[in-house]
Amino acid sequence: VSVEKVIIVAKEEFLRKNVGKFLRRMRIDCAEVGTIQEAHDYLGKGNFDLMLLDEELPDGSGMDFLQEINLRPSKPLVVFMGESVDAGETAMKKGAHDFLLKPFDLKFIKILVKKAGQFAQ
């Protein structure tokens, strides 16, 4: 099983666009959203294999949204994106699959996608 569909939930448009472009070059379908509400809308329309979730969003906390996602019967693996190692550790305790410390190099996205694909098998 490989990662075919990713949703990027991040407040910075630059981050969403760059990561989205990178994933599409890897032939991965992705949605880019900037708010929790938009993420809810997309998750209601279909399943995603992986979610890249920002720590802070304009309409709420990524940490709170992570806990909400974990209650869903069909949920994506979540990679939490934050600015401190403490936030990453907390996110992993609350159910995140992995953590990216911002700012990060795009090569880490490729590694995470590969790891997520192996985990899903």
UniProtKB/TrEMBL annotation:
Transmembrane segments: none
Alphabetical GO biological process terms: phosphorelay signal transduction system
Residue ranges of every copy of the Response regulatory domain listed in the record: 5-117
SUPFAM superfamilies for this protein: CheY-like (SSF52172)
UniProt entry tagged with the keyword S-adenosyl-L-methionine: no
InterPro entries found in the cross-reference section: Bact_response_regulator, CheY-like_superfamily, Sig_transdc_resp-reg_receiver
Keyword tags: Phosphoprotein
UniProt keyword Secreted present: no
Xref: PANTHER family: RESPONSE REGULATORY DOMAIN-CONTAINING PROTEIN (PTHR44591:SF3), STRESS RESPONSE REGULATOR PROTEIN 1 (PTHR44591)
The protein's name: Response regulatory domain-containing protein
